[in-house]
Amino acid sequence: MNHTSNSRAVDRWSISKEESLYSPSIEDGMSLEEEFAWRMRGVCFIQIAGSRLELPLPVVGTASTLFHRFYTVASLYEFPFDKIAATCLFVACKSEETARRAFDIAKIWSFGSEEDVYEEDINEFADEILNYELIVVDLTRFDLDIDHPYYYLYDICEQIQVPEEVINTCVAMMNDSYRLPFIQWYGNRLMAVVLLMMSFCGCEVEYEIDPDSELAHYMEEHSQVIPEIVGSVMDMYKLFSTIYASPTGSPTSH
Asked: What does the alpha-carbon distance between residue 138 and residue 52 come to, in Å, rounded to a whole number?
């Protein structure tokens, strides 16, 4: 599969992890850990809704990527994360030709509410999704040409033998990685390579890579940043285990 055009689209949104220290939310007074926690909550909402709507993984990935891009240029204090997450899913469904009505997404979104949810509340949420749609598309520069690490995993599997157990573990880790803007930090291909190697280790399966192969050369080229990515992924899992112990709702003005 040729990812050239999509790679250029991703590059327009590429930022370093250090640049995340200067996001609009942090400039407005939010801590980095708080911002990461709210981003993770938003993506988890997207993934739960995507599962209930039986959406393909790339659609959910597109919505998650749009969500992170949005908060690269907008503040969590200004735009409610849950409404933006729902809107990103709505936009992703349209862009990936798996359209769902705003009402359907709003209904799924309200499913886990502790209070009784009435149709008028769902309609109100759906109207908010439609109102935020243009804002999301505008602030993300109408850029819906989004690539995903899943495609690179399939490319790698053509170069080395990968057991099904390892593939399944890697796909699960790719799903988890959307909780933070790893793709903006490191790119799809590098994330696919690192997560696959982590999956081999996690499954305690040995692997062999031809030292003269393209994959071996690619890993050597990025050998200095790979430990950083592994550490960042592990930090993500640590943070995820704590965020639901903290208050939910939405960020309030500082």
From this structure: 28
- Closest among 3, 1, 12, 4 to 143, alpha carbons compared: 12
| Cα-based angle 90, 151, 215 (whole degrees, multiple of 5) | 150
Record the tokens describing residue 203, joined without a space: 């499954």
Q: Which ranges of the chain would DSSP assign to H, the alpha helix?
A: 4-11, 24-27, 32-52, 57-73, 81-95, 102-109, 119-139, 149-157, 164-177, 182-186, 188-202, 214-221, 226-243
Size (the chain), residues: 254
Encode pLDDT of 131-163 as tens digits. Answer: 999 999 999 999 988 999 999 999 999 889 999
Between CA 126 and CA 218 the distance in angstroms is 45
Please answer whether residues 52 and 108 qualify as being in contact, where contact means their C-beta atoms are separated by less than 8 angstroms: yes
Distance of alpha carbon 157 from alpha carbon 163, whole angstroms? 9
List, in order of start, the domains of the chain with CATH numbers.
17-140 (1.10.472.10), 149-245 (1.10.472)
| Distance between CA atoms of residues 248 and 37, nearest Å | 10
Q: For residue 71, what pLDDT band results from cuts at 50, 70 and 90?
A: very high
Angle at which helices 119-139 and 57-73 cross, to 10°: 70
Coil, helix or strand at residue 176 = helix
Burial class (CB in 10 A: 0-12, 13-18, 19+), 119: exposed
